[in-house]
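User: I'm writing a tutorial on reading structure tokens. Could you give me a worked example: one chain, its sequence, then its tokens, then a sentence or two explaining what the tokens reveal?
Assistant: Sure. Here is the example chain.
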Amino acid sequence: MDMIEQTLAVATEHHRAGRTDEAERLYRDVLNASPGHPDALHLLGVIALQSGRSQDAAEMIGQAVAGDGGSALFQANLGHALHACGRTREAALSFARALTLLTNQGESWGNVGALANLIRRYDDDTRKAAAAEVDAHYSMGDVMRRHSLLFLLDGDIAHYRRLVQAVLDEPLRFSVPSLHYAYWGMAMRLFQGEARSGDIGGFTGGEYRRFYRLLVEETSRRYGIAVRLRRAQPRDAVRKVALVTNQMLGQGHQPTVDAFDYARRLQNDHGCEVVIVNPNAMAIAGENGFVPEYSYNVTEEYDGEQTIGAFGARVRMLSFPQKHFDEEKLHAIVDAVEGFDPDVILSFGASNVVADLFARTRPVVCLPTSSGLPPSLARLLLGYGPEDSAAGWPDDARERFRPFSFGWTLPEGGAPLLRGDFGLDDEGPVFAVVGNRLDQEAGPEFLARIDALLDRLPSARVAFAGATETLPERLKALRNAGRVDSLGHVDDIRAFYRVVTAYLNPQRQGGGGSAAFALAEGLPVVTFGGGDVAGVAGAAFTVADEAAFIERAATLAGDAAFRARQSDEAKARFAQTGDRARSAERLLAYALEAQQRV
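And here are its predicted structure tokens:
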């Protein structure tokens, strides 16, 4: 090791230990011996940044980058220095260069994801510029990673179009698990509202639906599913029902509760023999380069044949917790369903590959758990909200559509509670924001809206209810942070709704259950159109734009008579459209129709 390397090693030890004066002196000794030395310049810049001298930091780290443009660390720290200087576009481009370097080196998701999230803080134009920088210098051949990463950076649906078209053009380039993982990766980003530009409806109604159909067909063909199926003849009654869900996780998971609730109603109220089939068929393990990496949980004790209980009832379940979407698992699931020989298969969820494997041989009814055009291949596609229609849908889907309301069963509500029981002040209006994915759903635009509302109402508070990780830290940056609470999970959501003023909905696809329970308690909802909450709440609680959102919330806080009218409308809406007993009865009638339909 030469003298410069030895000096740098000692200096970095001082730096790590917090002895920055000693470290800085030694870094400068290196520069005296070797002017323009990139590592010494970079580390001096880091000290400057840590000391709050962002301009000096940007200058020194910039010189280091000029001497070694291939260091992802240099580029990333230059981005941090430029950001601290308020030069956000330049910062985003530096982060993009660091991200590209790491990606081209085959870096796993961790560091790539951190850099991507730094870029995603910025405005749309800046994000697009950063994505273009990555695109121009990306050198790997992984179509999944390239286009999913670019979408993550700027939200332009064109990137997903290119990804899907590559699959449609040459499906044999990709394994079935890889196709499956990519499908769910895109589904999650779209569900969370990450698409920011482009013809989203054209994509979901066009290429994306074709991608889903290809996924089902390739799964059936490559895994030899067709030979394991037998065509069921039309029957004159529905006595045996297989409810196929993507995933059962337990009572803390609303879709699990809903799937069980439908199963037990068909069994106990209508005399059907019901089995829940729990394939754990959403992507559980990473199968390709798609970003961001993610995986769903599996309740491993749900294994094999068993009965599960809730609502005072017990229902048989066949569960497959294996963490891969592979041939062996699919054969076991298909054989189990064929052995049960159901009169109808209920596809619980609009994207349900396992249920759709049976679409050509048995009556399948799609019971969607969210609003919008389902890709399902089922004989009948049911609506989600009472006003849903098939207007604008492709001809094949429009002909299969039937009006429906998903309906809800209220969770148990305990003894009356006070605001203080939730850590809230007794005086002034309190607005509730509720969800299981608030880290993703409560984005910068929604938080800016919250700040504007609190500017308007100096005595008001906003309480976020739901498990979170990153949201509390972001709330601290609000102008009105002292009047914003992050409560975490709330056990008795109905009691919480009884003590707050209104339910505020971020722009998102989900949230239908939390909104339905609010309506049942007479809690007015404030939401934009589109998505599950708007479908559940209806026109009386939908506003047109940002100004109307804030005006409606402010009026609910200040006009007792208006809030009382909205409260009555909320209860009436739930009574008219939210009764799941009626939904289950209607579902059974559609199942009989599907039996007769060829």
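What the tokens reveal: The mean pLDDT is 92. The longest helix spans residues 560-577.
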